Amino acid sequence: MGVGPIGEGVSGDSGVGEGDLGAAVPGLRVTVPYTGRACPAAATGRSGQRRGRLRHGAEDGVAVSGTVSRVRTMLGGLRKRTAPMLKSPAVLSLGARAVFVDAPRLRGARKSGASTGRAILIAPPGAGNIGDAALVGAFLENVAGPITVITRYPGDIRIPADQADRVEIVSLGTLLYGGLPSFVRDLRRFRAMLPGAASVSIVGADIMDGAYNFRASTSRAVVARSAASAGVDTRVLGFSWNGKAHPAALSQLREADRAGATLFLRDPLSVERARRDGLDAQASADIVFSARSIDSQRAQTELDALDTAGGVAIVNVSGLIDTDQTGAYVEIIGGLRERGFAIVLLPHVIKNGPDDLAACRKVYAALPDTAQVAFVEDVLTPAEVRGFTERATVTVTGRMHLAIMSLMKGVPAITLATQGKVEGLMAMFELPYLCVEPGAGLAGRVGDALERVLSDREAVSAAIRAKLPAVQELSAANFRGLPRA
Q: Which of 38, 329, 348, 360 is the least buried, fewest Cβ under 10 Å from its Cβ?
């Protein structure tokens, strides 16, 4: 029997899963049976010997070719069988422990107290998601000094021009989304950054409980545990917890918690749920409440073309909602127009997958009259969105960060509930009726909420503004211990 390590001695695609498993897991070997045929007896004489050698070479070539084909087939099957295993949280966790096997030494090598160096921020997916860009922007506006932003791909996050001179982007495409070999490779690159790092901050938002992608949730927790075990000031920034977390996400986050990572939960309901699950949850609010930048130029251009004397309503149709909402939103916009509102139809996520632009286009195409509707069809910056929200009277949205950027301007934001996160947000303002359930009857529920808001809009706005200082103080808690900008 011939024996050789995976990734050696066979040409072509010999890896398993993603990358070279043999390199990631030294010593792993496969056994390949030798099936070459024995040489026939050589013919007598020189010509016979020559013919024998030719026959021998041809038959050996066929045998080797067949063996290579069988090895490739075997490795292809092995790849399919092992790929899910190589992405499992338990396997990735073991891989991370191997990379950080000397974590006690790394911890001891760091000076006590706060270290100087770069702040590392592990960004959310971005790539057309304005809420993700707002989270990164809020961090940059509140943390001083040099910052490294880790993204999946180059271009996922646009850095504002006024921050570009102190921010570097490092793309680690498989740190959060890869299988074992590529995950280990990027984790090693991440580890190499830690000696020069003062802190590691991970954007938590709605990513940590596994509701959308449990592997991405667990990978973030594994990275947090790894950095904390090496003695780096590590935190997961303001995130929601739905109380029904994926078991693997909960398990890995508990390990990060025990390793010393600080967990900031962004609303009181999430704090309660997380503590019930055994996590040392620190109360906070979403970091976007700490954002300060505003760019009003785009809003002025769009709104100058409308009659805004009766007020401005921002309407977002979220591609995240499974059901077709077109009819409901046509009815909602019709009701707002009857009240005299100019409408800004504003997608908040424009990307492959749950795309708001496609959902908004369906609604716009179904409207009987678009004369007083401004339809924004490109990806705005968060500062530009805040330029719109500061001019708004009311917002109706399926996206939480559009709600946050409205509330921070004192604008009531009627928001569709998703994954248990909106209830906690509205609890901070003691306005639970601003959270509405999607699905059948949506137009009626939004209409009822609009009636409550618009019957005394100034009182509702005043109630929001009264709560804002406390909410913004909780938001600032995320940056405790970091150099403030």
A: 38
